[in-house]
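Step 1: inspect the first sequence and its tokens.
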Amino acid sequence: MASVLIVEDDQHIRERLTCAVAKHPELNVCAESGFHDEGMKLLVTHKPNVLLVDLGLPDGDGIELINQATQFGSIESIVVTVFGDETHVMRAIEAGATGYLLKNTGVDDIGESIMEVLNGGAPISPAISRHLLQHFRNDKKITAVQQGSLPNLTKRELDVLIYISKGLNYQEIADSLNISYHTVSTHIKRIYRKLHVSSRSEAVYEAEQLGLIHIRE
């Protein structure tokens, strides 16, 4: 059976997590704590297979526990927290967390999430995925700007690109911008060339990734 150390300061949630682990036939709780310092000692003493940790502890930061867990090499860390913002998410992942779950995750899902990590997966609450995507989109944009490789689209080409993203066809774009069908075609060819793509969907995706346009969902 795989051992799990739980470090969570909210007693009700800690009991909930303990029950979730206990009900799984392949997992057992080796120890639990509501404090950073005690959790650090338990981590060293028990060397569990999995650390289930909150980030906001009364006497310290859960990130430090994740950092310590990575020193052992074989301990996987899963964050269970109320903090769903990009800053907390990225700090935890950069520290070595292989899972990030919000506290509204169903009890039945906790055990399966732990098993997923042990089997090489990386369980992440759906609400967190958006922050990760945004982070990497921003990184891509920053890298492109730093390298001076951000495509230099003209204002008219950006106008055309925005209409493409809205699903308008060539004639509809021409009518909207009061230009000819063939001029729209020329603009789109230039957009494709500058973005290194070969289709409308690729052009929209790449432009949105680089921050050239912003698509509201």
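Step 2: inspect the second sequence and its tokens, then contrast the two.
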Amino acid sequence: MLIEKIYGLINKIELIEKKIGYVFEDKFLLVSSFIHNSFINLPLKMLYNGQEVVLQNNQRLEFLGDSILNYLVSIYSYEKYPFFNEESLSYFRSLIVNYLTLSKILKKLELDSYLIFNYESLGSNSIRTKTYADLMEAIIGAIYLDSIKNKNDYTLTYIKKFFYDIILKNFYELIDEIMIEIFDWKGFLQNIFQKKGMESLKYITIEKRINEFVCVAVLDNVEVSIGVGKTKKEAEKQAALNFFIHKLKNPKL
């Protein structure tokens, strides 16, 4: 059963490579990135096409991928948002590297179904958001190692391409969901304005409907965004969110 699952994954490698936009020289690095530690704990030797290969679970690759992702996001955010101070840069980085974001991206790519883990010891309900985020980080680590070892990519061309084409592209496509679910964007905006000695956004309720409120955010007497919510507070938070998303997508404005 163990070998059958691994062979099943090997047969899908080409499809996975198309989804992530990278072709591996060492296919078994990619295979290892999809193996949860509940499936194998120690290195596993197996024969494939008459050649002995060694597979590991994805914990080491995840460790490496986590560091690489933080590095790439730090450089990107520093260059992209020059008006952010250190605290703001940290907040923004946390949006991309957190478990929810990485898990959402992995599922959007439809890679979650390829994860190999032990159903008997964990149960299907034990695979949580962090598990899928770890898988995404392991894939990053695998691409980095393969490109360095087999393609002499010391300028990080391949891993940067994956970061921009896969991570960032999908992050911005999912940003509305991400911001709503994990981030205190109203408090974050207020903190930014206070740090810069600027007047904070003001929120004005302009309409009360049967089951919702409509609110606008005002900056320097100009309406800059609008929000709708079941309560006045939710509408204000949505207006703050919409303003922040607009600033992220248009940093020069």
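Step 3: confirm your contrast with the notes below.
The beta strands are 44-48, 51-55, 202-208, 213-219, 222-229. The chain has a mean pLDDT of 87.
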